[in-house]
Amino acid sequence: MSIDFQVGATSGTARLGRLITPHGEVQTPVFMPVGTLASIKGVPQDMVEKLGAEIILANTYHLYLRPGIEQVRKLGGLHRFMSWNRAILTDSGGFQVFSLTELRKLTEEGVSFRSHLDGSTHFLTPETATAAQIGLGSDILMAFDECTEYPAESARTRSSMELTLRWAERSKKYFEEHKHEVPWSSNHMVTATFGCPSERSRQNAGPTEAELCSAGRMRAPAPTSDGMTQALFGIVQGGMDPALRRESAERTIEIGFSGYAIGGLSVGEPRRVTREIVEATVEHLPFNKPRYLMGVGKPEEIVEYANLGIDMMDCVLPTRAARHGLLFTSEGKISIKQARYAGDETPLDPNCGCRVCARYSRAYLRHLYASKEVLAQVLNTIHNLSFYLDTLRAVRHSIELGNRSQFLSGK
Amino acid sequence: MSIDFQVGATSGTARLGRLITPHGEVQTPVFMPVGTLASIKGVPQDMVEKLGAEIILANTYHLYLRPGIEQVRKLGGLHRFMSWNRAILTDSGGFQVFSLTELRKLTEEGVSFRSHLDGSTHFLTPETATAAQIGLGSDILMAFDECTEYPAESARTRSSMELTLRWAERSKKYFEEHKHEVPWSSNHMVTATFGCPSERSRQNAGPTEAELCSAGRMRAPAPTSDGMTQALFGIVQGGMDPALRRESAERTIEIGFSGYAIGGLSVGEPRRVTREIVEATVEHLPFNKPRYLMGVGKPEEIVEYANLGIDMMDCVLPTRAARHGLLFTSEGKISIKQARYAGDETPLDPNCGCRVCARYSRAYLRHLYASKEVLAQVLNTIHNLSFYLDTLRAVRHSIELGNRSQFLSGK
Asked: Do A215 and B208 contact (CB within 8 A), yes or no?
């Protein structure tokens, strides 16, 4: 078994689910913080745990370049390397190749590109991208796809979608033949055991256990679910054309994956279009498989997409915005650099219970940002992630109660 | 009463002491982490608490420029501003004026200088430096002094020492006349109370209480010792001349302070000379007052100075070195950027119990540093501070047992 997914309750199109992965359970709808280089920028792992994150995303492209897949594999995989014993999803690297690199060359076989770091040449294919994710040992891998640009002509969108479908088949074939090579599989040496009780019962555990846990010597997380394997998700493309989206969904489902992602959105199109395409795609996805909307979005948007039946989302927005002093609060967005906060003794968000809002004033956060103190990034990121995770917690609670979630914001 | 200091045990010239401040008790000999701009760079306050730091140092010069003394004063003082309810010592700003600024002009009255940030002109005197520290509301203030450069001619050293003595008198006079103006004094509004039990019993409290504490809404630390005031320390100068050091000590003691610092060391002289001057000065300082050696040093040096009878030390070394990937361990110094650590699964220091060594491998720390991840600075700083604070903990334990402390290091 790779992953298990159960829908526990629905409210309209929204679903409350439980995703069981080799590294723990994930309550859905879920927002996955982005840890590009095996780190949620600036935030120690125990704090990410305390925020309640049950799954994070790491970027294959970046880890492929630094420290390199083979290095991570030799060190037991990503979980062990970064000391994160909860679930990890990796992207295929394709999106970064298309958005970060120059001198790309796309062929049927794959895409050659130059590293954005040192200009060195690399070649990524469905097979190598899948091999990389097996080497990283993430719980959920993404098939290698082409993210169709926006806007795109109809013929271009179709041919891109067809390529993604052929690549999906190749990704799946490689995955099925090689998934036993995951560094934490029973075929591979893992001697250490991860004995922290709070890892299993963290839903109920107070900070006490988490604290005791992180104080202990537990540097070597090991797989907790014997015999579980990684899971591969397929990606639906098709641009902004509902008919192509439907076709892409149906043919991707035909290939058969453990979950289905909607790619190629949030690439510049109006939000109205995003919503339409999500709606037009979701209805063709199987009920009993997780649905992952890639690369979204603002807080109000993730609530909206959860209401449309999306189970998983990720976005760099909360972490990246934090680094620029943009903070999400229940009263609207705050740009903490503004001089108006210099004497403001109130917490960032009076309705937030995160450790930043519990302890620090806007005046202090403004001072840290204005003084370029590193602690500004640390605290801002903790708050923004807390806001996102709390938002999803509220969404799940609403679904449980049978209500439609609404994002309430003062601005 | 300002502070209270009691020597509980001695071992040779070393002393085990308890320093009671308006913001809690400090076990001495103590190392004070440096929080230049009201932040230990990169480390959230609750983590600094968990490291066991009972007192930190903040820099008046930097806070004077950003966010400004009046701003901090209006916000209730440094403790409340940065949400740090343990003791704080502030320097007078003099050292930074002499080391960071250009176009200084020194007169009997004080020193005019240009900000290293924007070139704006400022004037610092014993009175304004003391007023600034009263506005910041630190527990311990330093008299405004001139840090004599090294090397210096005998006549220059004497005249500099004489100036420091005259400035010490003026600092004290201003302090006595204005100390009631501290933002947390009973004359000033402080309505919030700081009720976290672990603040009072943190020596015995496990992470549990600290965690519960930091999770609560305690943004407004207030003075815990009613009626206590700030304490002013005098600074002994006199260059590398034991006779001048003796004269400076005696005449500073004559003015009368709550504690005595040794300034003007670690300014480029050989370590042998530092040690000689510390020894030659300490013997002229009163037994029942805290002795503070400013701006030192390496781990092995702080052990040595504690053995000579020094009670308090501070240095940017552990925090600054951390930012450059230089890490102190029981097995010697490690430059984590080196490629040899890329595949090293062992903890940074196998004999360290800090949260970094308990959780992360050298390989991961090397990756973070090589990838310029902000988490590198956060984790490296936590470890280096932990190493320093543990070193002092061992020193205190040795004194308690009547042993002479030795710094044991593999390199």
From this structure: no
Chain B residues touching residue A353 (CB < 8 angstroms): 215
Q: Which of A145, A241, A311, A314 is catalytic?
A: A314
Q: A375 and B44: CB-CB below 8 Å?
A: yes
Query: For A178-218, how does the pLDDT look when each residue is reduced to its tens digit (9 = 90+)?
Result: 999 999 975 444 333 333 333 333 333 333 333 433 433 34
CA distance A83 to A72: 12
From A207, which residue of chain B is nearest by alpha-carbon distance?
B211
pLDDT at B226: 64
Please state the pTM of the whole predicted model. Answer: 0.92
> Are A183 and A137 within 8 A, CB to CB?
yes
Q: Is the pLDDT of residue A226 over 80?
A: no
Residue A126: both structure tokens together = 């469905």
Name the pairing type of β-strands B111-114 and B105-106: antiparallel
A125 Cβ contact partners less than 8 Å away, ≥ 6 residues apart: A109, A110, A111, A144, A170
Query: Considering only CB atoms, which chain A residues are within 8 Å of B63?
Result: none
The residue in chain A having the minimum alpha-carbon distance to the alpha carbon of residue B70 is A343
> Are the Cβ atoms of B211 and A214 closer than 8 angstroms?
no
Q: Compute the distance between CA of residue A126 and CA of residue B47 in angstroms, rounded to an integer.
A: 44
Average pLDDT, chain B: 90
Residue of A128, A57, A76, A65 lying closest to A101 (CA atoms): A65
- pLDDT tens column, B176-226: 999 999 999 754 443 333 333 333 333 333 333 334 334 333 444 444 456
Q: Which residue out of B139, B314, B349, B390 is catalytically annotated?
A: B314
- The predicted-structure confidence for A285-331, as pLDDT tens digits, reads as follows 999 999 999 999 999 999 999 999 999 999 999 999 999 999 999 99
Q: How far is A342 from chain B (nearest CA, A)?
A: 8
Give the number of residues written for chain A.
Answer: 411
Q: Do B83 and A359 touch (CB under 8 A)?
A: yes
Which H/E stretch holds residue A114?
strand A111-114
> DSSP class of residue A340?
G
Distance from the Cα of B58 to chain A's closest Cα (Å) equals: 14
d(CA A55, CA A17): 14
Please write the tens of the pLDDT for every residue from B189-203: 433 333 333 333 333
Q: Nearest-CA neighbor of A182 among A333, A405, A22?
A: A22
B390 is catalytic: no
pLDDT higher than threshold 80 for residue A408: no
Nearest to B10 by CA among B288, B222, B388, B381: B288
Interacting residues of B138 by C-beta distance below 8 A, sequence separation 6+: B58, B78, B88, B89, B90, B230
CA pseudo-torsion sign B22, B27, B29, B33: negative
* Residue A91: active-site member: yes
Contact (CB, 8 A) for A282 and A308:
yes
Mean pLDDT (whole number) for A104-133: 94
Contact A361 B74 (CB under 8 A): no
